[in-house]
Design a protein that fits this description.
This protein is mainly alpha-helical and 125 residues long. It is built from 3 helices and no strands. The longest helix is centred in the last third of the chain and has 70 residues. The protein starts with a helix and ends with a helix. 0% of the residues are buried.
């Protein structure tokens, strides 16, 4: 029985809503100035609802923001500093290795030339 009553009540509500929408005259054109005036009127009402933070809350939020920026800035600085020094160290190692290889080649050539001259001089005597 309760289901039957609730379904009848739902039908009545649906019919009432349908009648409300059917009785309203349809406006195709709206006055743009009225729309703008309505917007600003609603805006004024919404601005009144805003709860603005107090001075302590603003200072607290500002301090937290500055602290977070400082921590992130220090972290970025450390990562940048570490990567820069790491790349410079790799570059130095690569240059030393190239220089060592060139010096070894020069030393080998000089040693070979000296050994050949000594052999040639000893053979000539």
């Amino acid at each position: 029985m309760a289901n039957k009553e609730s379904s009848e009540a739902a039908k009545k509500i649906a019919k009432a809503e349908k009648d409300k929408t059917a009785n309203k005259p349809k406006k195709n054109k709206k006055n743009i100035f009225k729309v703008i005036a309505r917007f600003f009127k609603d805006l004024k009402g919404e601005v009144k609802k805003i709860t603005w933070p107090g001075a302590k809350d603003v200072l607290k939020g500002t301090a937290i923001t500055i602290a977070c920026i400082a921590v992130i800035g220090i972290a970025v600085f450390l990562v940048d500093f570490g990567l820069t020094n790491g790349i410079d160290a790799l570059r130095t190692v690569a240059e030393n290795r190239t220089t060592t290889t060139t010096e070894a080649s020069t030393t080998t050539t000089t040693t070979t030339t000296a050994a050949t001259s000594t052999t040639t001089t000893a053979a000539a005597e």
